[in-house]
Design brief:
By secondary structure, the chain is mainly alpha-helical. It folds into two domains: 1-29 and 171-395, Glycosyltransferase, CATH 1.50.10; 31-166, Alpha/alpha barrel (Glycosyltransferase), CATH 1.50.10.20. The chain contains 13 helices and twelve strands. The chain has helices spanning 5-27, 56-72, 77-93, 119-135, 138-156, 175-190, 196-211, 233-236, 240-256, 261-278, 307-324, 327-343, 376-394; strands at 54-55, 104-105, 111-113, 172-173, 212-213, 218-219, 222-223, 237-238, 290-291, 305-306, 355-356, 362-364. A hairpin with a 5-residue loop joins β2 (104-105) and β3 (111-113). α2 runs parallel beside α4 (119-135) and α3 (77-93) crosses α4 (119-135). The longest helix has 23 residues, at 5-27.
């Protein structure tokens, strides 16, 4: 299929309206913590609070979102004020004395847990950078660049993360180069950093060299240091939606480089491979885990449908279609868009449910927890709206 100009215009308006009339109003202003700062995001379907702990990832992601809305949609004072509340909470409560960030804190900012990876830091970088652009705060810009440098050092093994157990198999995951590509892209697009282009190229090369397996049409989630497949359960486990998220980061970079054909080809291969493995031909939607050799997967949620892979596949397929004109990507986009908005979207209260059974029925009603909050869905709606607006202006 191909989308007409009228259909693309309809999609543009749909994403814009969903973002600003449905998704963002579910979270704000109710989630602002006027007592301790930051945000309260652990909410049930109707928006009622089910826990008052704070996930550091989501504090950073929400600060990024609010700053980005201010930077690109409308300079609403309430968005900037809320972004400042998130930025201030991150600085005041979310860094340990060793410089590493926490993963999980209490409502008033007391530490609960750290993790043996540095994703809290990457979300801090994009939050601080977007907030710096919105506010003109030079200290925020300096902090964003400083913590980005820490992330590079963590990624390269030059700085060690706190953690009790070593990875005796020495596996490496696609998550690190992926998240670092997007972190660098956000930093470059907001306040700039001379390191970004070279590092993005390095991380894309690593993904292509070690994780994309053209011979078996697959993108691995983890591999041995030399890029070989580790033939154990963890090593064989695939996450199709995650790999497709990485694909759209690469397509985004291709667009930044004047539609670099090699990067477009790489991103599209990654979408093709993981759509083949991840799309549920019986019930629709993206399966959460698969085994590279179709063996049993260890995690019991392997055939569930999580919200965020659908957000990422919606972006990736639309981006691939607009960049290539290939009708198969329009068909993929229409399939995943229709499935997601029919099954995840809460038409009564707004926003999306996070977790479905394989058959598309709701597994539980929470809209927010340690991993879900205002990020994947509003980012998808914001990105697709911006993408379509730019495309239609050129048409």
């Amino acid at each position: 299929m191909n989308y007409t100009i009228q259909q693309l215009t309809g999609l543009k308006n749909f994403y814009y309206n969903q973002l600003l009339q449905d998704t963002v109003p579910f979270w704000f202003p109710r989630s602002l913590d006027t007592t301790y700062g930051g945000f309260l995001f652990m909410r049930d379907a109707d928006g009622s609070l089910i826990d008052d702990d704070k996930a550091v990832w989501i504090q950073g992601r929400a600060t990024w979102l609010l700053s980005t809305l201010y930077n690109t949609v409308e300079q609403k004072p309430e968005w900037l004020a809320a972004a400042k509340a998130g930025y201030d909470f991150l600085n005041k409560h979310c860094f340990d004395t060793d410089g590493q960030m926490f993963f999980h804190v209490t409502r008033d900012g007391k530490p609960i847990r750290k993790r043996r990876y540095f994703f809290s830091e990457t979300f801090y970088v994009i939050a601080a950078a977007a907030y710096a652009k919105a506010s003109g705060d030079a200290t925020a810009a300096e902090k964003a660049r400083q913590v980005f440098g820490d992330c590079i050092a963590y990624a390269c093994g030059e700085k060690k993360l706190a953690g009790k157990f070593a990875d005796t198999r020495k596996a490496k995951g696609i998550g690190v180069p992926m998240i670092m590509i997007n972190t660098a892209q956000q930093l470059r697009d907001t306040i700039g950093d001379a390191r970004c282009d070279e590092w993005i190229a390095t991380w894309i090369a690593e993904i292509e060299r070690d994780f994309v397996k053209d011979d078996i049409r697959c993108v691995m989630e983890q591999v041995a240091p030399d890029g070989s497949i580790i033939d154990h359960i963890d090593g064989r486990t695939l996450n199709p939606g995650h790999a497709i998220e990485g694909a759209w980061f690469i397509l985004h970079e291709a667009a930044h480089r004047n539609n670099d054909p090699k990067l477009i080809a790489l991103g599209c291969r990654m979408i093709d491979y993981m759509w083949e493995r991840g799309w549920d031909k019986e019930y629709g939607g993206i399966l959460y885990f698969r085994d590279v050799h179709d063996k049993p997967v260890q995690e019991y949620w392997q055939d569930m449908k999580f919200w965020w892979p659908h957000n990422e596949v919606i972006i990736a397929t639309l981006l691939a279609y607009l960049m290539t004109g290939n009708p198969k990507y329009a068909a993929m986009h229409e399939q995943v868009h229709t499935y997601a908005y029919n099954h995840f979207h809460d038409k009564t209260n707004g926003e999306w449910f996070g977790y479905l059974h394989r058959d598309g029925t709701i597994a539980q009603t929470a809209k927010g927890n340690l991993f879900k909050g205002p990020f994947h869905l509003p980012r998808q709606e914001w990105y697709c709206w911006q993408l379509l607006q730019t495309h239609l202006q050129k048409s």
